Amino acid sequence: MNLRPLVVTQLAVVLLLLLSQGLAQTTSNNQPVNSDDPFAAKHRELLAKNPDGLSLTLQLKNKQNQFHPGEIIPLELRFTSSLPNTYVLDNAGCDRSGRLDIDTFVVDRTEDGIDPLHDYYAGGLFGFMGGGLRGIGALDNTPKLVNYDLNEWLRFDKPGKYRLYVVSGRITKGKPYHSDNTPVTPTSNLVEFEIVPRDPEWEKQTLASAAKLIDSSAKPRGYPNEAGHAGCRMLRFLGTEGAIKETIRRFRGEDQTCDFEYDFGLIGTPHREFARAEMEAALDNPDQPITGYFLNALTFLAFLRDHQTALPQFPFNDEAAKKAWQAESAERRHSFDAIKQKYLTHLARAVRLKQQSAGAISLETLLQTRTAGSQIDEATRNDFAVSMARVFFDLPVERQRALIEYQWNMISNPAMLPVLRQLYEHPPDMREFPAPFPGLAVLRIYQLAPDEGRQLILDEIKRPKLRVKIPILGLLPDKELPQLEDTIVERAISQDDETADALIARYVSAAALPRVRAGFENRIGELACANQASLISYFRRADQKFGLEMIRRALRSRKHTRCYPNVLTDAAGETITPEFEALAAEYLNDDDPEVVFSAVRVLCQHGSIANKPKIKAAIKQVIDQLRAAKVDPEASSSRGGPFPGYLVESLLRTYALAIPWFTTKDEFKELQELCLTRQCPQQLKPRDLTAETDIHFFHFEGVREERRFTVGSYESLSWHALKEKVIQFPKGTKFTWHADNNVTEIDRQLFDELKGYLNEHGFELARFVPKQNETQ
Hints:
Blueprint: H1 4-24, H2 38-48, E1 54-60, E2 66-67, E3 74-81, E4 87-90, E5 103-107, E6 113-114, H3 118-121, E7 136-138, E8 144-149, E9 155-156, E10 160-168, E11 171-173, E12 182-184, E13 191-195, H4 200-216, H5 226-238, H6 241-250, H7 256-267, H8 272-282, H9 292-306, H10 319-350, H11 356-371, H12 378-391, H13 397-405, H14 408-411, H15 417-425, H16 439-448, H17 450-462, H18 470-473, H19 485-494, H20 498-507, H21 513-520, H22 529-542, H23 544-556, H24 567-572, H25 578-586, H26 593-606, H27 612-628, H28 644-656, H29 665-672, H30 680-683, E14 694-700, E15 706-711, E16 714-717, H31 719-726, E17 734-740, H32 744-760, E18 764-767
Parallel strand pairs: 2-13, 14-17, 17-18
Antiparallel strand pairs: 1-3, 3-8, 4-7, 4-11, 5-10, 6-9, 10-13, 11-12, 14-15, 15-16
Helix pairs in contact: 4-5, 5-6, 5-7, 6-7, 6-8, 7-9, 8-9, 9-10, 11-12, 15-16, 16-17, 19-20, 20-22, 22-23, 25-26, 26-27, 26-28, 27-28
């Protein structure tokens, strides 16, 4: 018998079986995987749980699978679905905390894959705010890509082969922007890569390439600079001593995007003691600016010498452990602050020898740090202003702008007037619209030298082409400016300019009504929203009957613009007349839910309690109509308005927290029953609104300086609304004042005024005094 064909056939079968087994146990790089490996077994277990119709593919970009220590390892995640309109992808690419933790990177050699920022995020020293720009969309067969540099999450200092897969938290099952979607966590395929031994020549060349990339791609402020940013990231991850020195040299506060990379590069370096020593030496370098971020990074590296381990996770369910955790966290923060104070003292001595921009930026850091969260007395402010005025123009223009706009309270002193005059005469180009200068200079001059500032404002109003915006041009105490009335009116009629129209609302007298009416009456309903709001405000002031007629006209116009949903709220201002209140009540029965909402907002904020039944009935009518139409509460409308569920939630919250009345616990329960979404009842939890008696005062500094107040659940109140609300509380209520600001004089004036007002009406007001352990 000829056995050769049988043997060949059996051999072929065996080879096919072996081949198929080998193919079943390979990574995407065709690298073999040991089937007895716990890492591979865990991966197979997770893969088996992947949802049907959903695919997540991980690959190393550019087909590269060998990397030097410190070389960027670029990854690509590819999401697809064979089931259209089933899965939703969150494509977030960044987070305000500095790192996005929506995906988990799982590596086999866990002891050799080091999270460079673990002790920064888990150290218990800093609070982190999440969130950022993102898009939410349904998956289909078209791949959706997410790119990563693995180095942000893992650093590989030891050579050898590594395996990696990703478990993603980006996917939900349901529809885009729906709060009741179900989270799913797909697992990717495995990829394998190799970290080769260190190569000093490669490290030297990479350092030179990074520096060249940063220097050769420098662009003016305001232009995207992707090439320069790529060079900064190369420096961040390279991790050599040479890279650390170069990073410190470039960490100058002159490029915000790269400073972010330098900050995390130094914090996450494998050579932290070397970095700390080099940064300490830089404190005394005459050419090295010391920014607040630089100082914090240095302080953190020094802090780690005495705190090698991270703070454990917060024990939510153990009261005794909570107290121990809080005590340890407080001790760590106290230690961090003490180290930082030591470096601040050092910098205060060294700053005198620093040159030009290095001295200016370092001085600004000292000012910022010394005044953070504290009140500034006049003598200190004077010293700060005199020092800053000498070096102000050595600062980068972004820092000049920040000081004048947002940190003005630190240097508000006549010593800054020469600086402000130069900024007015030669405004820096910030490549922004509207341009912040010369308006900011006019504002601060007006505050320091009112007569000089007044003349500058009048000069700016006279200009044929306005370059300063209404928050500043409208500062004058004059009710009207008769000498400039013709200029203001004629310019507004001839130019399509938001500020020009706003000047009519602010300064033009009723005597000019015929001219303004002739120029704009037939354009109401077609103008841009801000322009229209200004003109309606003027018409209301000049002739209320005609003004109300123009409001009706604007509300009838629903094709040319989408201004109509905000016409009532824009026209209301701080207070409303009985005639305006009656007009708003008419629109509670409008066919458009957005118009109904605007009427509800006006009446709940400025109206009387007599409107309460009509408002409640209008809200129920809107909800009944939406339910009858069987609309998806979390789907966008074709005309671009808010999601129906969000609109209903906003209506109910506005009613629940109305100024003219208190909503009872039972009524909160009734409102919850009207919700259309799962999250809405959480916003309407029954509570006693009169039990919350803390008052907070917030002062926002900038071009549009604002004062806002909260009392209990009532947020973002005006001064008028606050005074109206507090006297509705039960007689004898004791309120507590919290000053969340650094404006001592304004705070004192407002506190004294409110205290007297409350005392007259049978209430009490006292300042909040923190307990000793709360001030540590």
